[in-house]
Amino acid sequence: MQTTSIDHSSEEKVIPFRPEGDFYFSKGVQAFKKRHFTKAVKWLKRAVELVPEEPLYQCQLSVIYTETGEYHQANEVLTNVLAKFGHDYVDCYYLIANNYAHLGLFQDAMKYARDYIQKAPNGDFKEEAEQLLTVLDIEEDEEEDWAFEEEDELMAYQESAFYYQERLEWDKAMPLLEDMIRLFPSYTLAKHDYAHALFQQGSESEAIALEEQSLEQEPNSLLSVCNLALFYHKREENEKATPHIHTLLNVYPIHEQQKLRVATTLAQVGQYKEAHERFNNVSKSKLKGHVAYYKWYSITLYHMGDPSGALSLWEEGCRKHPHLSEQGGPWNY
């Protein structure tokens, strides 16, 4: 009987396909051009994971975030590129300036626009940066005019409303906030504080409706997101609360007041680990006048397994703000 030998060397070998970053990058760009932004982010993130030393991938990811209105996330990516690759990617300065302008943070926008022009006097975005500065100068002039005319009166309202809100005296804060909304329509914080006071007084549906409307008009309103995350959480409407909480987990504000707002909101919705990280990154010296700092930071410490640290901070808060002692202690929340 004749046997047939098999020549294994002649077999066709299968080589597994392991796409590198360029494959995912091109897929992301294609999805972006088709305005399939969720898919584009997915592909670009994968490209960045595979080749973290390629700044082009990160820059393209930031462009997608900008297009979808996620300006904070875009700037986080761009700041990372600048930190790692420095002067080779000066365009990042203009892109960051543009994002800050969209967020209404005009001083930050002007700083980065000027940095871009200084570092790239003949750069691709020179004309755009100069136009942006012109617009921001006009905005700044208008804000200064308004501030000189009405600053004193507004500050008086702010201090009074803040006083009652810190003491949870919502019935006294409400009429002041209503007056602020009527007299200073450009001062948007009053509208969000009013919605919060409404909710605390039991008008929950009205408060939610106001913030949903505000978020529809201003999709990047951090204050609306904070309030809606808190409102839906307190009503145990978790499906509605979750997307707002997720947004907060991915937002890293620059200004101390906004940092505190995010930190306290995360604490109030039970995200203690993330709240702890945020509280660690706020400037205590700038927030000593806010009882919310002491209250919710100590509550966070208690839930993170540091009862002695929580009590120490609570007692410090009570010394600076005696009315805090009327709110129990960190173990009561």
TrEMBL record:
Keyword annotations: Repeat, TPR repeat
InterPro entries (alphabetical): CellSynth/LPSAsmb/PSIAsmb, TPR-like_helical_dom_sf, TPR_rpt
Gene3D superfamilies according to UniProt: Tetratricopeptide repeat domain
Taxonomic placement: Bacteria, Bacillati, Bacillota, Bacilli, Bacillales
TPR-type repeats, residues: 21-54
UniProt source species: Pontibacillus halophilus JSM 076056 = DSM 19796
Cited SUPFAM superfamilies: HCP-like (SSF81901)
Pfam families: TPR_16
UniProt-recorded name of the protein: Uncharacterized protein
